[in-house]
Structures are given as C-alpha cells and as structure tokens.
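Render this sequence as a predicted structure.
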Amino acid sequence: MIYGERIRLRAIEREDLPTFVEWLNDPDVLQGLLLHTPVSRATEENWFEGMIKRPPDEQVLAIEVHLPGVIDGDAKVPGAEEGRKLIGSLSLDTIDWRNRCAELGIMIGDKSYWNQGYGSEAVRLLVQHGFKTLNLNRIFLHVFETNPRAIRAYEKAGFVLEGRERQAEFKDGKYIDVLRMSLLKDDF
C-alpha cells in the first residue's frame, strides 16, 4: 500500500472489475480515455488476467479514499470496505529501465470525486513512488487538449508541457490535439 493524506494506492483485485466496467461505460469518464467502444465484464476480465502477468512495478493500482466515520466498521457504506472506497486507478506503464522512464496513466472513475484534488494527490503519490522507490528519472504522460481538469492536476504535480501532437486523436466527431507532458526527478 502507498498511503497519502486522503487516499491510498493498492493492488487491483478481481472484485473491483464490476466497478471498472461501470466507469468504462460512462460517456463522461470516457472523454479522457482512449477507449471508444463499450466494455463488457468479459473484456475487463481478460484485461485483468493480462495485467496481473505484468511485472509488479507496471501493474495498475486502485485509488481509494478514506471514508471518515467508517474506520471502526460502525456503518456500512455501499462499495466501501474497511472505511475506504474505490474511486479510480493509475499506473506507471512501459517502464524503460535503461533510460529510467515510464508513462503515467490515471482514471478517476467515480465522478462524485472529480474536482476535489484526489487526482492530483494520486499523481503526486505515484510520482513520488516512481522517483524515490523505483529510481526513475523521468515520468511522462499524454493528455487530450479537451481535458482541462487533468491538465491542471498534472501541472499541480509539477508536470510541464513538452509538446503537442496536432489532431492526433479523433474524438466526438472531430480531431483533437494530444499534449505530452513530463516531470524529471531533479524537478520533483
């Protein structure tokens, strides 16, 4: 587990998959993702089987928030276990060990937690893990120009714009630019 002030990052479990399927079929959530077609439970099961075969450092992590007042198990909150609720996922992918770099990806699927700084905190936690535990030198990401909420979260975590891939993605009937951002260990 990787603990932050309001969240923790943990391994994805098979029991999380129905929640992911729900999120990945929500048009609002899909606006920031590369997915374009509905996701079935079987598709997500196949993804999970492949993901757990990846090296441990490249496996996707769940983002959970702490639910005040539920720690002792006094109350039952749907979707919450041990005073925590799953709200999203993130990972460091395609780690290049020779060049000490990786690509970051994140999804806050539970829309009730959007615009509250949880994405920023999750990104900062994973970046800290990447630099201090995995000894990476550079973490980069791609983000759609049409996703200002994500761009703000990345900037708050210290990422800087490296470049723009013009009209690189076809989304909602039009071509949009994809921004490439990065953060170096020395700048963290």
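Summary. The beta strands are 2-3, 7-11, 61-66, 80-81, 84-96, 101-108, 138-144, 160-171, 174-184. The chain is about 25% helix and 35% strand.
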